[in-house]
Amino acid sequence: MTDFAATRRAFHLPKGVTYLDGNSLGPMPVAARDRVARMMGDEWSEMLITGWNKAGWYVQPRKVGDRIARLIGAGAGEVVMGDTLSIKVFQALSAALALRPGRRVILSDSGNFPSDLYVAEGLARAVGAELRVVAPEEVEAAIADDLAVLMLTEVDYRTGRRHDMAALTAKAHGAGALALWDLAHSAGAVDVDLTGADADFAVGCTYKYLNGGPGAPAFIWTHPRHADAAQPILQGWMGHDAPFAFDLGYRPAAGVERMRVGTPPVIALTALDAALDVWDGVSLSDLRARSIELSEAFIAGVEAQCPDVALNSPRDPGRRGSQVSFRHPQGYAVMQALIAAGVIGDFRAPDVLRFGFAPLYNDLGDVDRAVETLARILRDETWNDEKFHQKAAVT
């Protein structure tokens, strides 16, 4: 049984704040500050460039990748870290397209994160492929025999709607296509099983539920059956078979190592490694059960006390990730008033109030405080103050 009281104590949670935005940026693990300070004091400052070997900086992407593998249903040596999520989407998608020569259709949905669609659109234009975008509920019916790659984010960033990874992957395979999954809102939030679902490629970020910090590096997974055949368009120095031979021609490294691109962000990986310590001993089935408990309690409380908002997430918890959203015509102002009152969620255009539930540090007390505060703001129309309508650059 996972001790969620102990995992909560592992985070710095500012006094007086109820934090329900871990689906956008996780809070700081207490250990991260000291770990990064030690790295900078004992490694960077004293070892200088010898730290790549002495401190193991060069192999960080593999070692940290192995720690994430357990959380997404992957095996050792199958996940590698580095770069941004958009870069990893580009690599995985270009490699998947190349594995299906003669097919040029990429299928995604309108619930996908726009950045993924931007990457797919640009790649499709460059290689003469076609990007088809349908509504989330129309994906299964849109899988046809001309499909090359099904590219989906498992959990919708606005509604929390969760795709059936195993069923849609099987449908794509039945049509002769490959399946690429973005786990940005899944890893560390739900019980992901890439191997069990027989997916082909997966990518994800680590600054949300994995709590790696702002700008933390992304990860990429390649199914072992594709690992030595995948040929991403973006071929980087660190993905070469022998980077320090300085060959002018590219020769891909074995397995997922070829998905490395640039120099590893050592400081960021150090913070992420510290954040992953919190996961030692955490059961993913316990995590999922706790997530459902929290989100169900929140929905029940809001619907009982806040008649001015409408549920924007699936009611069935089995079809939902670890986030809940409600709609309100003045969603932005309502969220700013909530934040000012110490309850931090976020807003997504055009009218969505979004709340993430991270079982490692959220509890039922957070749910009660959030419900009570939202009810008071709506009842008193506190949100109607002019200052709450002034939009900031980041919403």
TrEMBL record:
GO molecular function: kynureninase activity
Entry EC number(s): 3.7.1.3
Record keywords: Hydrolase, Pyridine nucleotide biosynthesis, Pyridoxal phosphate
Positions with a binding annotation for pyridoxal 5'-phosphate: 85-86, 113-116, 153, 182, 185, 207, 237, 263
Catalytic activity: 3-hydroxy-L-kynurenine + H2O = 3-hydroxyanthranilate + L-alanine + H(+); L-kynurenine + H2O = anthranilate + L-alanine + H(+)
Top-level class of the enzyme under EC nomenclature: hydrolase
Protein origin, superkingdom: Bacteria
Cofactor: pyridoxal 5'-phosphate
PTM sites of type N6-(pyridoxal phosphate)lysine: 208
Pathway in which this enzyme or protein is active: Cofactor biosynthesis; NAD(+) biosynthesis; quinolinate from L-kynurenine: step 2/3; Amino-acid degradation; L-kynurenine degradation; L-alanine and anthranilate from L-kynurenine: step 1/1
Keyword Cell wall biogenesis/degradation among UniProt keywords: no
Subunit organization: Homodimer.
Family listed: Belongs to the kynureninase family.
Function recorded in the entry: Catalyzes the cleavage of L-kynurenine (L-Kyn) and L-3-hydroxykynurenine (L-3OHKyn) into anthranilic acid (AA) and 3-hydroxyanthranilic acid (3-OHAA), respectively.
Protein name: Kynureninase
The encoding gene: kynU
